[in-house]
Amino acid sequence: MELTEIDDDIEAFLVESYENLNQIERDIIDLEKASVHKEALARTYRSLHTLKGNCGFLPFPKLESIAHAGENLLSCLRDRQLVITPQIISALLQTVDSIRQILSQIATTKQEGDRDYSVLITILNQLQSQGENTQAATTDEFIDLNSEFSPVSNLTASPHIRVNVNLLDQVINLVGEVVLARNQLIGFSTKFKDNNFAATCQHLSVITSQLQEKVMKTRLQSISTIWQKFPRVTRDLATASGKQVQIEMEGADTELDKSIIEAIKDPLTHLVRNCIDHGIELPAERVAAGKPTLGRLFLKAVHESGKVNIEIGDDGRGLDLEQLKKRSQQLGLVSAAQAAAMSDFEAINLIFLPGFSTAPQVTHLSGRGVGMDIVKSNIEKINGTIEIDSQQGQGTTFKIKIPLTLAIIPALIVTSGGDRYAIPQANLQELVRLEAQAQNTIEMFYDVPVYRLRGNLVPLVYLNQVLQHQNSVTDLEILSLVIVQVDNYRFGLVVDTIEDIQDIVVKPLGKQLKALSLFAGATILGDGTVGLIIDVGGLGNVSGITAKQKQQLLSENTTNNQEQTSDRQTILLFAGPENAPMGIPLAIAFRLENILSSAVEKVGNQYFVQSYSRVLPLIELDKVFSHNHQHYLDDQVAQTLQIIIVSPNSELSVGLIVNRILDIVEEPLTIKGVASRPGIAFCAVIRGQITEILDIEAVIRIANPHLLQLTTHG
Q: CheW-like domain location, by residue (predicted)?
């Protein structure tokens, strides 16, 4: 069996063991040259002790026994109970060779093998207890043990190597430059009618996308690198506070970029401490509340829509909103009048105010004075968000959304005042085009211009006013709105024009511009010009969308939408086969695009199109639902196709070819009928019409079941 087929735990064990073993071997050889070397002895002992401990978890008892015998001998040397001799050095080197042999067997079969190492263990034990009296036996037995094994043969058994992070960052930066060059070439290819040049650009685009994907994966680490220390942290904190806590972890194999892992390590640790210190009650208090004495601390992580969702929560006492208001007044953070007028939403978010703490004094449990404002700030620095869901007496859950990586991201390119800006797709909700007549519906609410979008008030921010552009070319006949969301609120950004979504390489701003909260970085666009990346949260603050105005607008929206609020979903409507109304939840729609049929390529029985950083399989809904219909992709006439890129899971994206996009609506998704045919989840009445809601995975299964199999076995 290949090493790649071994489960993750064994693979990680092998990688670490080979590293430790190579260091042990070097240290043992150095011991013989320099007699007793205290640091080398201590390092060798620790490494062998670690290897022995790891064996017990998997378990590998034979390997554990050899490591244990070697560890005991090293302990005697370290404690000066024995003097280093050539025989002892030989026995230790033979121990290394035998361990390496077993590791090789594990890498091949996941088993230790049936070879007997009892003689070696006996020798190690005799050396430990008898010193130099075992010289003869040692020399004789080593000849027998090495008749079949060469230690050199397995020095390269592990397919992993250590790479300096700085070197890896340089490689990623170079790949970013290749992506930029690719974007420029694609832009040039549209200006020329040379088919060979266009084909070469397409080929380069595919290779660049694959290179980008593979290189970015070298930076990915599982979140378990952080979570693996939480069981010990939980035990120590629970013991120190006299509480009983059980930790549950789900999604520990979820991967993020190394820079993200480093950035969230401290915030997540603080939240875990917070749940144990402030959330979970003492056993007597839990019993009085009708709860089991064992408190529950849970951590969850999952990929969703290009982000990672993390939840950290407990089943403890929850947040006492009145106590939060009272404490904030004691600390001078809010006035009595402000506290009295607060909503529950505002009261919960008091814990994010700088200087807020419910602890009467700083202890080693309360985080050494590090407040939740620092947690929120650190998460926002990596374009993440944090929300709190708390029920008094039931518990508190912290919900965090963070990007997978910060290096290369999809972004919408817009213009204002003749310059182009990038808005991260993670903040985008939808695009709205207002004709002159519709602009009359813009009204003022608490000195903020707002637009009623499907019954909800959306505050507007004019980018040209924030940037103080004097030469804005906004067409008064058409107003382009980019609806963006940050934290718990959204607003509409008014721009001159909306271009397209591109994969951009994020470049940090120089020291002189670091203080500008309006921008999160810069990028080089396809034509070689520099575009600034808008920090949506910073833009909301700079533009005057204050916390009070956010809450007033939120309250107004809540008042207007009390009916069936929890049942409402945002649905993307489109015309399907024979112009039948169909829809899908907007949450799984990644992008809307128009493509030329000439850009579609056929491989076997599957059609593909190259779309930015991926090769996208296409599914024609007419072929799925109307088998006798004339299909677009079979037609040789050049035409523009409308596609919806959907991602039913984190590993698969496909393009659905539809007749035309109709609208985006927010309505209660009430089931009005069962599925009428395969590929349909159910029917709903939307805007007075019976609308078929697609079951995306079923549609893919009908069109090409191999696509789903690739995500399962790939």
A: 408-545, 567-705
